[in-house]
Amino acid sequence: MTSRSLPVALIGPMASGKSRIGRRVAAALDVPFIDTDSVVVAEHGPISGIFEREGEDFFRVLERAAVAEALEQAAVVSLGGGAVLDPRTQEDLRDATVIRLTISEESVAKRIGGSKRPLLHGDAVEAWARINTERGPLYERLAHVSFDTSTRPISEIAADIVLWLEERS
Ligand SMILES: Nc1ncnc2c1ncn2[C@@H]1O[C@H](COP(=O)(O)OP(=O)(O)OP(=O)(O)O)[C@@H](O)[C@H]1O
Ligand SMILES: O=C(O)C1=C[C@@H](O)[C@@H](O)[C@H](O)C1
Ligand SMILES: [Mg+2]
Fold it and tell me: Which domain of life, per UniProt (predicted)?
């Protein structure tokens, strides 16, 4: 893979595996890994607390700052699930290699039990499915390629992504 492919951005819905798989891909490529949710948490505390105290719009401002800085790095960047809603992020992604992770509703149900994700209160699976349907076309439009994470182990999916990146460059 050449540095022209960087940054590599992982996008997709909550619990699709962006953080876990992104970390593995970065390690395999020997480049830094940045998770924009983790950057916001490190600087401002847990995301659920930000949503409760200051609201989603304020979270999106903090998130956008983290995303803008991350996408300037030669790194693998896992974006928060809603980061792609910002038109400036959509524009920044034109200079990145964008990988979309998908997951079925059936599989996500097993991953979001006991979730603290602020947008998934109430019936978490139903809320997840609604958001995934709303954003699906946007994720698809922004991505160069999609990988489904519903059934296979994280290690195999990460290896497939690395192979795809190597073949593409
Ligand atoms: N391929 C997989 N098989 C089984 N479990 C997985 C797989 N990928 C991720 N998981 C599990 O699903 C959960 C969510 O993964 P992860 O945190 O990487 O998702 P995410 O896309 O970063 O979510 P968020 O948008 O909330 O940050 C974790 O508990 C992780 O271990
Ligand atoms: O899909 C979303 O809008 C979100 C996803 C998470 O990664 C966090 O960024 C936050 O919980 C919001
Ligand atoms: Mg994550």
Answer: Bacteria
Provide the annotated binding site for ATP.
15-20, 117, 152
12 contacts: CB under 8 Å, gap ≥ 6: 18, 81, 100, 101, 102, 103, 139
- CA distances 35 to 10, 21, 61, 90, 122, Å, are 9, 11, 16, 17, 26
Feature table: binding site for Mg(2+): 19
CA of 10 to the centre of ligand 3 (A): 10
The tens digit of pLDDT for each residue in 6-47 reads 999 999 999 999 999 999 999 999 999 999 999 999 999 999
Tokens of 86: 């910002």
From 101, 111, 150, the mutation candidate for ligand 1 (largest count of ligand atoms within 8 A of CB) is: 111
Q: Where are the domains of the chain?
A: 3-168
| 43-69 b/e (C-beta count within 10 Å ≥ 16 → b) | ebeebbebbeeeeeeebbebbbebbee
Instruction: Compute, in angstroms, the gap from residue 18 CA to the centroid of ligand 3.
Output: 5
Q: Predicted ipTM?
A: 0.97
